[in-house]
Amino acid sequence: MGKTILCETVIGFDNIVEVSGADFNNNADFWATVAAKVELPYLGEITTEREMKEGEAKETDSKSERYVLSKDKVIQYYKDHDKVLVIDDFHYASKEMQMIMAQQLKDAIRRELKVVVVSLPHRSDDAIRQNADLSGRLSLINIEAWKKEDLKEIALKGFKQLNIKITDEVADRLAVECLTSPQLMQYICLSICTLLEDKNEDTVNKNILETAYRFTTVNFNYYDVVNVMSKGPNTRGKKRNKYKTVTGRELDLYGLIVESLAKNPPVMELDFDAVYDRIVKLIPEKEGRPDKQSVKTHLNNLHLILKEKEEIYKAIDWKDGKVYILDPLFLFYLRWGRIGE
User: Fold this and answer.
1) Which among 326, 335, 322, 256 has a CA at the least distance from the CA of 289?
2) pLDDT tens readout for residues 129-156
3) Is 267 exposed, middle or buried (0-12, 13-18, 19+ CB in 10 A)?
4) What's the pLDDT score for residue 52?
5) What's the CA angle centered on 128, arms 85 and 104, to 5 degrees?
6) Pick the residue with more confidence: 227 or 68?
7) Cα dihedral sign for 202, 207, 209, 215?
8) Whose CA is closest to 325, among 302, 308, 309, 341?
């Protein structure tokens, strides 16, 4: 969170040229996209006309020629105008396109084109994996998530300015629940202020927290995301195995995966064993349990479904035996926004 804003602040709006990995499908011309961002006519057609007169008679003919701007000219334009190419969300491009982009970047960087590739922490080596020759040409800058102690300060300092009392213990709970997101911490604190004002109170106690959490999720639009994840792919008439949970609900494996992510403690990254352990705890001991390979298959299916949808649906990532929750607001909604659904 904040990587793109950091680039804009450091590079400056006059020099930054932003493209997204989502701009490149398998048929995209890398340099055509890069040229279009600075309004360079990468592809075009020139028509010349000739007119001949003989007495009263007049004849005209024309000739059309197509041209394609070379990548050398695109690179030179970026250099001459001190432009920095920022490829945001590199991981959104397909594997095939990532390979093509990495190959093009290798040569472009050699020609002194300035490039910043922005990706998620667990995807930061994607560009290198696609082209090992890039490894000596990249400097990796890892932007770490906010620490709990720093997040607590938002609540402690903010409520102090408002003359609202809050204990260190309550602030600690808020820091855990906001899932490394300073924005989410601010949303929750705003909800608390609204509730306290309605009650004409000036102390943040434990009893108000759950109400504030649910109140915070009112405008979070993740209902369809959860619905898609819970349903999984089209069954094509086949019945799925359902498991009776400790709460009495019957869920298939997709529903169990969703429920497992919402359980305590709230974390943005879970290895497979942790996910499986959470799923097992949702099912009474006397009931049958899903095997590990089946859970992995369902996780892979979920990953593929969400990857093909709009950006808001890209809520989780399944990679190298770990589940990564990409959006803190989504996990917060999963924990507190589904009451009564």
Assistant:
1) 256
2) 666 767 677 788 888 889 999 999 999 9
3) middle
4) 63
5) 45
6) 227
7) negative
8) 302
Question: What sections of the chain are H helices per DSSP?
Answer: 3-11, 30-36, 71-80, 95-110, 126-130, 148-161, 168-177, 182-199, 209-216, 223-231, 253-262, 272-281, 292-307, 328-336
The three-point CA angle 128-134-137 to 5° equals 125
Place of tokens 């019945």: 239
pLDDT tens by residue, 255-271:
999 999 999 999 999 99
CA distance 8 to 16: 7
**Burial class of 145 by CB neighbour count within 10 A (0 to 12, 13 to 18, 19+):** middle
Span 298-319, average pLDDT: 89
Nearest CA among 290, 300, 302, 301 for reference residue 226: 302
Residue 90 — pLDDT band, cuts 50, 70, 90? confident
DSSP-based helix, strand, coil % in the chain, nearest 5: 50, 15, 35
Determine the 3-state secondary structure of 244 from DSSP. strand
Mean pLDDT within 44-56: 59
Tell the burial category of 213 from Cβ atoms under 10 Å away from its Cβ (0-12, 13-18, 19+).
Answer: buried
**CA–CA separation, 248 vs 122, rounded Å?**
36
Buried b or exposed e, range 107-126, using 16+ CB within 10 angstroms? ebeeeebbbbbbbeeebbeb
Burial of 171 (0-12, 13-18, 19+ CB in 10 A): buried
Task: Output the pTM of the full model.
Answer: 0.75
Query: Measured between alpha carbons, how far apart are the two ends of the chain, in Å?
Result: 29
- What is the torsion angle, in degrees rounded to the nearest 10, for the CA atoms of residue 115, residue 121, residue 125 and residue 126? -80
* Distance (Å, whole) CA 198 – CA 193: 9
